[in-house]
Each structure stands twice: as C-alpha cells, then as structure tokens.
Amino acid sequence: MPHPWRSNIRNDVVGGSVSAAAAIPLAMGYGMFALVSLGDEYFANGALAGLYSAFFAALVSIFLGDKMPTVYAPRINSTFSLGASLYGLVHSETAVLRAHSIGLILAIFFSVILLGGFFQALFGLIKGRTLLKFTSHPVMAGFQTTAAALLFLVQLANASGFEETKPFTFSTGCLL
User: Fold this and answer.
1) Of the candidates 41, 16, 46, 17, which has an alpha carbon nearest to the alpha carbon of residue 29?
2) What total of structural domains would you count in the chain?
3) Is residue 156 part of a domain?
C-alpha cells in the first residue's frame, strides 16, 4: 500500500498540469489583448505579461494560504478594462502624454495596475468580498457576457479582413 503523501503528490501534479494547460493560453491571449493598443511590436510583450501575471498570481495565492481549487489567470473583465484604459492613454489628446514617449504611458498604466492590486488587497483584509453576495447573478452574468461580446466584435473585423474599423458610437440625432 503506497504512502498517502505519494498519492497526494501525484494528484497535485496532475491537477497542476491541467490547470496550467488551461491557464497558459488564456493568460497569453489576455495579455496580448491588453497591450494591443501599443501596436503590433508589443504583441510578444503582451504574451509575456500574461504569463508573468498568471505565474505570480498563483505564487502569491499559494503563499497567502489559498486552498481553493482555482485556475489562476487573468480574467476577461479585467483584461477588457485594462485594454480600454491603455487605449485611452495611447490615444489621449493630453499634451503631456503626446509629448512623452511610450515609457510615460506604460509607467502610468502599470501604476494604475499596482494601485488596483493595493485596493484588492485592502478589500481582502477588510472582508470586502462579503458585499459581492448581494450582487445578483444576472448582473454579473450580464457584465461578463457584455465583455465577451465586445471582445468578439473587436476581433470580428480582424477575422473578416477589414483594414479600417469604426468605433461603436451613437449619432447625436439618435433617440433611444
């Protein structure tokens, strides 16, 4: 009869391998999507950023004692929000951002990410997640579905071969 720890190690390795097989492509894709606003030359950097984020999120979760069977990878909602924020910084009409290089934009972008991580840690310490149980399931499902639909629509133009895309806007004469 094998020792109990040997069977746990085998299960842990299999579970970790399955988790990595799911998390690695997701992390790479989301990283590329988040940095696509910088241009095609940053595509590989986006893939690396996604891999690093998945790796370090898993390490931090393990060191903090998380025992949940969760796949640690970036999520579509946060990726879409970060991508939109970076797009806004890159295409900003602000003179300071126009005058400086991409380095300033990336410094601002990653400062926002660090500030977001600080607030997440703070909300975790004060047990802020208990407020999420009051958010209805349809609201959360609608938010996630909208993010997925917008991601699909953005990629639809690329898959169809269109060279130029138009933003989704309403005209001033449109009444809803």
Assistant:
1) 46
2) 1
3) no
pLDDT of residue 176: 45
Q: Is residue 82 part of a domain?
A: yes
Asked if the structure places residue 150 within a domain, the reply is no
Residue 26 belongs to some domain of the structure: yes
- DSSP output for 26-53: HHHHHHHHHHGGG-GGGHHHHHHHHHHH
Distance from C-alpha of 48 to C-alpha of 43, rounded to nearest angstrom: 9
Grouping H, G, I as helix, E, B as strand and the rest as coil, residue 106 is helix
Provide the domain limits for residue 76: 4-126
CA distance 89 to 106: 9
Name which of 59, 119, 109 is nearest 81 in CA terms: 109
- Rounded to two decimals, the pTM is 0.61
pLDDT of amino acid 137: 82
Q: What is the mean pLDDT of each run of 10 residues along the chain (176 residues)?
A: 63 77 80 80 84 81 69 65 82 79 85 88 83 80 77 71 62 49
Give me the phi and psi of 117, to 5 degrees please. -65, -40
